[in-house]
Structure formats: structure tokens, C-alpha cells
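sanity check this chain:
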Amino acid sequence: MDAPKYKVLVVDDEANQRTALASMVAGWGYETSAAADGGEALERLKDFEASVIVTDLMMPGMDGSELLRRLGEQPNRPPAIVLTAFGSLETAVALVHDLGAFWFLEKPLQPGALRLLLERAVAQRSLQQYSETLERRLSEEGVLGELVGNSPQMQAVYSLIRQVAPTRATVLISGESGTGKELAARAIHGLSPRRDASFVAINCAALPESLIESELFGHERGAFTGAVERRRGCFELADAGTLLLDEIGEMPAVTQAKLLRVLEERKVRRLGAPKEIAVDVRVLAATNRDLRAEVKGGRFREDLFFRLNVFQVQLPPLRERRADIRPLSESMTKDLNSRHQCRVNGVEPAAMEWLERQEWPGNARELRNVLERAVIIAGEGPLRLEHFRGAPAQTAPAQADPADGDGTGDVRLRIGATIDEAERALIEATMRHTSNNRTRAAAILGISQKTLFNKLRDYGAADAGE
């Protein structure tokens, strides 16, 4: 078993059975510890953070039933599998329903059944701990997965995600471009029982019509010109996991019909294959279009729309949740610092006020792009209004350019200077402003680092080879 070292506590009063059971479980890749009764198990749990408990039911001292009762009084208790030689329907109900056991197994023990239950119990425990971490971050920081924001609009979105994530329901995620539809899909996957399986995303708008079916369903060797080998499609790659069909409104009509059949039958046929393959995939779909309007216009199949629209999550545009711009900016700046090896520490009040006034037609994606440029230009310290000069026209500050930092913000040129001379003066002034940081200088000038390197080399600048 190539699983991580999850911990299993074995509780049995018979030493030989306890040792044999612990040894068998350890052979499956788990870290094990053992206790002779319920009382010893509770003491052992103080230092041994068990992922799962496997306990005998009938024991002298504290038996399995009392152990379950005591565990039920503790927060965040691990799931317990109970072993009993006196199996019955009444016993099962009492253990699972009344005492909160994960499940029970009758003796003599079947190793295969125990191994399967351990895997399921560990998966449940892992999901429980992950969910608790997300809930804690949500309450403390307004963060769910990679979604950020504490506004009422985002709290409503978080509530919907938490409700639908544990189910198998198909979800339609809608919203303008840049609102975070894929992040919402990843949050749903991360809170679901499938979180340890694959999350596969395909952008239906990014593929030509001739390739989208091959990407979705796969193909056999020789199925078409260029198919030199067998290839699994996204449905097979996402088997037991989650598949996100992004920009579903762009899918060609022919492919829509085939997708509907797959959703109904849960089987796919590779292009050129003689038979179908069963798949277990949870499908999420995302779109920035009004699919109801697309259906009325005859551009999207009505039956497919109803099949996808089992549960809808609508993401609000950034202009309708301006209170989230500050926490979004803080979260994005931290990530951008790591990405670009910068040391920016926050946004000055005037710059934040300016950010909060913008309309952000590109939503959170546009905000990130503007922040990324500003972080590269600033390099370190707080982001100031001047660091946002030169941003795209719809967001750039309109005030006059400030000084360049060394008191010589203006580039002075003599009358009659050539274009090449003006360009050189501007590049050299920008290099001084950035302390010869070519990455920041290139970003300010709006040129590539390669172009800047070539210019500096032509000028014979000493830093051109850095």
C-alpha cells in the first residue's frame, strides 16, 4: 500500500490477537499502536493521533461500547471500526447509529473487508479534517479553498458550495469572466468525498471543433489522421474524481448531443473504439453566458441545459462586492511576492482607495494582473499609487506621474534630440529608478527583458550582462 502513514489504534484484550491484528494492519502501510482495553486506548490517544480506531467490542474493564461513548464526548474524534463475535441487526444499529461507530465487522475477521473499511474510514477522516481546516479559514479569513472574500455575496456562495460539495450532484457555475469559476469548482471538489481523486478541467472554448471530442472521450490509434497512439479522454482521466467543463456554452452542437448521452449513461466510447467504457465522474460545468438565452436562441440544447443545471452557483462580479477588494489584494500580493521573489508588504491607503473605486470589468483576474505589474515595479515596501501608473487604460490612475524616486523624475531632452537618444535617456532613467533591476525596468517600460537587454548591450551598459 503506497498510502501516506495514517495511524491506526488497535484495541483488544487478547494479546495474541492484538499483536497479530496490529502486525497485519502495519503490513498495509499504516502506523499502528495497540491497547488492551478502552481505558488504555484513551490514554494512548493523548500521544497517538489515530486516524482510525479498530476495537474489540467485548473486553474486561472498559469495553468497546463504553469506549465509543467516551470518544463521543470528545471533539474531532477518529472513526471507529468495531469487531464483534455477536453480530446482529440490533448490534449494528446500536453501534453505528446510537454510538457513532464508523462500521462493525463480525468475527472471524475477513482481512479484505477490514482493509476496505480502513481505506474508507481514512478517506472520511481526511475529508473531515480538510473540511474543518477550510471552515476555520472561512470564519477567520473569509477564505474557502482559493476563493477569497467575506462580503455577504461571497458568504452566500460559500454556503451553496458547502451544501452541494458532499453530494454527487452536477453543478452549473455561472458568472462573468474572471470571477473565479474554476476556483469555485476546485472548492467543490476539495470539499467532496472525491477530493483525493483527480480534478480535470477542460476549456471548451480553447479547442477547435475537430479536437474537442477526442479531448473529452479519447481516441484509438488510427481513429483519424494524426492519431498515432491510443489516448484517454478527460472523462477517463477524471474517473472516480471530478471533471470541470469550462465555457460549456462554447461547445459545438454535435458534441453537446454526445455529452448528454455520456451524462445519462455514464459510459464513454473513444473515437474508433468498438465498445464503451463505464466511468464514475462528477461533472461540473462553468459558463459566462446566459444558457437560458442560448437555449431560446437555439444555440444550446435544452435537454443538456436541464441535465447540467441540477444545482447552480452564481458568482458575483467584483464591482458588486467591493468590500472584498482589500482581502483579495492582500492574498494576491502574498502569492505574487512568492512568484516573483519580491518583498511587497501591503497597499498604501490612497492606492487601496483607488483600487476600490475601479469597476474591474475583468473582475478578480483583472485585479490580479494590475497587482502583478505593480508588485514587479515596486519590488519591495508598500504598493503606492505611483506603482499603478501605466496599468490598462480602464484602470490606470489619471494623475500626473510622480518623481522616479531619486528626485529626478523628469527626463529632460534637448531640442533636436533624435528618437534613439530619447529612448536611451528614458531607458537609462528607468534603470536608475529601479536600481538596475531589469525585470522591474522592463515591466515599467512595457518591453520584454530580452529587448531591454539588447538595448543596454547596444548602449554598452555595465549591467547588461547581469
Notes: The first strand starts at residue 7 and ends at 11. The longest helix spans residues 111-141.
